[in-house]
Amino acid sequence: MNFRKVNIEQQGKWMYSLSEQLYPICRSITGNGVRQTLSIINDLIPLEISEVPSGTKAFDWEIPNEWNIRDAWIKNPKNEKIVDFKKNNLHILNYSGPVAKKVELKELKNHLFTLPGFPEWIPYRTSYYKLQWGFCLSYNQYKDLEDGEYEVFIDSDLNPGSLTYAQCYIPGKSNKEVLISCHICHPSLCNDNLSGIVIAVNLARLLYMTKPYYSYRFLFVPGTIGSITWLSKNEDKIGNIKHGLVLSLLGDPSAFHYKKSRQGCSEIDQILEYLLKSRKNSKILDFSPYGYDERQYCSPGFNLPVGSLSRKPFGEFPEYHSSADNLDFISPFNLSESLNLMLDIVTVLEGNKAFINTNPKGEPQLGKRGLYDNVGGQGQSKYFQMALLWLLNLSDGNNSLLDIANKSGIEFEVLVSASKKLAKATLLK
After folding, report:
1. Are the CB atoms for 261 and 339 separated by under 8 Å?
2. DSSP E strands, 297-350
3. Pairing mode, if any, of strands 48-53 and 57-58?
4. 234 CB contacts (<8 Å, ≥6 apart)?
5. Mind listing the pLDDT tens digit for each residue in 262-315?
6. Cβ–Cβ < 8 Å for 245, 377
7. How wide is the angle at C-alpha 95 spanned by C-alphas 89 and 100, nearest 5°?
8. pTM for the whole structure
9. CB 420: neighbour CB atoms within 10 A?
10. How far apart (Å, rounded) are the C-alpha atoms in residues 392 and 387?
């Protein structure tokens, strides 16, 4: 699969523009914000959208009531609106119940959340499974609050409804699947996780223009409860999933980090180890049961070969879960670099075959098959010749092209090109 014609710079601008469009939407694990987001994505790639009613069991979990919010604010004793959800949807404790009353400052403070270490930023906080109300504000705002009576208003509702998720399925020549998953439950946070969403959407768009060997399933799910719900509803599809990635935190300038699947040595783990060797300061992390939705796909009842790809891991950069994770924190260039890595991953996945040498007794004569002539006409003839020899020697059905790349130090794409020439000469099958 050749993505060399893709204009990476142009794709970065496209993804950033989509981030700008999705940024203002107030998303949560349920509600109209998720539907609005999926409606926009559905105009770009075909989605199968599912609604799972509140109260539905999903293994040990249950779909909660649906949350929607229209407005929220705090007015000070001078009747001035000092916190306004419509100006920044992070101001609301996500999943807050409705409230309309006047309270003294002492009581109000029990419902306020700040980031004292970063006094100008608004934190992102949630209360999905405990009914309460609250507001998030900068610590500077908090310090300026004066004694007196404050009016608080939250126009929200928590009623029986449904959880919404979507999937985009791209059929390949094989029914073996590559799973790409991202979470869609965060409101105005760009790195976490608009970056994962826009890269997944763009990768799906590009794959639709090809004829892949694998089938690709893109999941757009609310974090934790969404992936658990999808797994509970789609156990019949689990056996087809051969490789998988959870995408998040891919828009900042940090080095790439890959957290291995629970299996630890799956093909997707090996591919990321190979590709990240050439990315400066990148790190490979062992699996842990704490993180994003990879921990659901890798739970022992499924143990799928699904790893997690990010830049800086969650919680390890100060902007995480705050208003500083905004459109200024990500960039078209960083998004394009992340997409480029994803294209490399797909290229290796699609091309990673194992061959058998059809003439294994001694080194076959390459000159009479015209292979030396081809080599002689290339600028890196010796390098290409070594690729031919490595392939012939290690193609015993037990070594994939990726194995040979790691053992030989020859680039994967060179080995792919050499394997095609050897196969055409009937020396590999």
Report:
1. no
2. 306-310
3. unpaired
4. none
5. 999 999 999 999 999 999 999 999 999 999 999 999 999 999 999 999 999 999
6. no
7. 80
8. 0.95
9. 12
10. 9
